[in-house]
Amino acid sequence: MAAMTNLLVKDDANPLVELTFVPITDTPEPFWRTNMAGVPYEGQARLIQSVVKQKNGSYKVTVKLEVPVMETLGASGTSFGYVAPAKVAYVTTAILSLFVNQRSTIADRANTIKMMLGLIGGATSTSATGQINGSSAADTYKNSIASMPLLFTSLVLAN
Fold it and tell me: What's the CATH fold of domain 1-102?
């Protein structure tokens, strides 16, 4: 495995905010966490990798991103000036897993990842590779009418 380094990712803020995922540990599985000033520990985004050998000899390779959404209760404060501290309202989690046969090659795995990223990126009948653009990716996903982005962004939650 390659040495762990900081990972820079842009979020959906306007203007875009660059988040730095700092390596925390590589055992038992690689783990990164953001270190945003003014955000409590539980509000930091987390990234975890894992490789698990399956009973049939193949491998499950997974990356999991957890993005806590913070809320501030009583932001205007009380008549005594007390403002409740920010806390995590909920966590949105994305998991991408690749199940690979032990005989698969780097080229096989890379091709599968490329195709999946194209699908998630909004591949359509006219755009074979999707519309991923680092400066406007979130807007592309939010406004997309392509099937894969719609699957993840426009779902209707049942009560």
Answer: MS2 Viral Coat Protein (3.30.380)
Domain residue spans in the chain? Answer: 1-102, 105-159
Q: Identify whether the C-beta of residue 34 lies closer than 8 Å to the C-beta of residue 25.
A: no
pLDDT at 48 over 90: yes
In single-letter form, the type of residue at position 82 comes to Y
Q: Give 104-156 pLDDT, tens digit per residue.
A: 888 888 888 888 877 777 777 666 666 555 555 566 666 777 666 666 666 55
Both structure tokens of 133: 């653009």
Residue 83 CA: distances (Å) to CA of 44, 72, 109:
21, 9, 50
- In tens, the pLDDT along 61-89 reads 999 999 999 887 665 666 676 767 778 99
Supply the DSSP string of 27-88, one letter for each residue.
Answer: SSS-EEEE--TT--GGGS-EEEEEEEE-TTS-EEEEEEEEEEEEE-TTTT--TT---PPPEE
